[in-house]
Amino acid sequence: MKKDLITEEQRRISRYAKAMGHPIRMYILSKLTRQSCCFSGDLTDELPIAKSTLSQHLKALREAGLIKGEFELPRIKYCINEENWKEAQHLFQKYLNLKH
User: Fold this and answer.
1) Which of 28, 69, 73, 100 has the fewest C-beta atoms lying within 10 Å of its C-beta?
2) What is the mean pLDDT of residues 54-65?
């Protein structure tokens, strides 16, 4: 594959799409867009998954840059990464409006 065939914008939207590719992650994003932040323990109480599984989902969202985690010992507070969330919205809107 040619190096310049895939744009940086395509790489970014793919990173966001991959992170959003699980219903649990979409639930987390939906919750965080409706409220300012939440603690991982709150999510553990709501979701029917193990803490370790939740941690993996939070890690995927964090690595994609869609959420941020802040330590408020002994807990971690998670919030939407506003800058990247806006970029993801823009990229998806742009892509979905392309005429093929």
Assistant:
1) 100
2) 97
Helix axis angle, 23-34 to 51-63, nearest 10°:
70
H runs (alpha helix) in the chain:
8-19, 23-34, 40-46, 51-63, 82-96
Question: Cβ(28)–Cβ(61) under 8 Å?
Answer: yes
Cα dihedral: 24, 60, 64, 79 (round 10): 60
pLDDT at site 100? 59
Record the pTM: 0.89
Token pair 């869609």 is found at: 66
Give CA–CA dist 5/2, Å, rounded.
5
| CATH number corresponding to 8-96 | 1.10.10.10
Burial status of residue 16 (CB atoms within 10 A of its CB: 0-12, 13-18, 19 or more): buried
- Which sequence spans correspond to the domains of the chain? 8-96
